[in-house]
Design a protein that fits this description.
- InterPro entries: Cyclin, Cyclin-like_dom, Cyclin-like_sf, Cyclin_A/B-like, Cyclin_C-dom, Cyclin_N.
- By secondary structure, the protein is mainly α.
- Among the domains are: 109 residues, Cyclin-like (Cyclin A, domain 1, Orthogonal Bundle); 118 residues, Orthogonal Bundle (Cyclin A, domain 1), CATH 1.10.472.
- Helix content is 56%, strand content 0%.
- It starts with a helix and ends in a 20-residue tail after the last helix.
Amino acid sequence: MLETQKVARREEVIRRTSIGTPKKLTPAMPGLSSQISTVKIEPILEVDNEYDIDSEDKGIERSCWQYAAEIHKYYLDIEKYRVASPTYMLDQVDVNTKMRSILVDWLVDVHYKYNLLEQTLHIAVNLIDRHLEKNLTLPRARLQLVGITALFIASKYEEIYPPEAADFVKITDNAYTLSEMFQMEDELLSSIGYRVTVPTAFQFMNRFLKASKTVNTKTHLLANYLIDRCLQEYKMLRYPPSMIAAAGVYHARMQMHVVPTWSACVEYHSTYSVAAMRLCIKDMQEMMESAAAGVAKSSKLTAVTRKFSKEKFQGVSKLPLRFPVDHE
């Protein structure tokens, strides 16, 4: 009798605790769940309708058009905190500006060989300068290691399918080992406070080309060529990435005879008037003229020019230069 009761009790427990079809829960506030599923929350755009360049992307889900203006403003706000000092080379013990230029020139070739994104190159150069600023006694023998490690980090951060770590070591003709590159990766990331997200001239360039309603592909490529050339020039660190991008767009539109060269809309989004960019425009012009004339250092930095001379880039680096006398 006792055994029969135990079996019955056990069966009752099993019945009560068995998993069945869950009951539909009634919300605490009737109708709330249906409201939540249908409400579409969108941020308020703080851009004057006259200068709105993002709402046209409403149909593109990945564009995040609602947040584009806010993201751009954030980039403008933080760019000055994510760049190296334009005078850091004055305190370098064993590395100089010429070595930096040669390193960047070589990295452009590596970047092109591995078919990496433009943003990857710009991030890599930013990481190099910020690391060098924090490591003023870096031996020149380790400069190439810094460069290839920066490109390795930028690739992992930006690319969908980055090259393998061994590929970066191999491209140095095995001058370094994998363990040395991984050690440098730790040192570099630590020196920059692990802040790899940086506004670059390439990002700003795309924004300003859109604001200027530039639709010609060759003009886009020419602007890209100009800002990539600036990566090789240490003196261009004196200008924030947004100004380099703006000057590049200005020069590209001027070279391609696009009218107007600079509009109120692009001035609004870039925050720069032509007068405000005058010195940057002048330095960019001198940089390109020196390269074209084969003057000293500029004539030896050929990677960007060779890259943009290819058919893939419509040979924009071979276009004749047309610069104005002044930029007022």
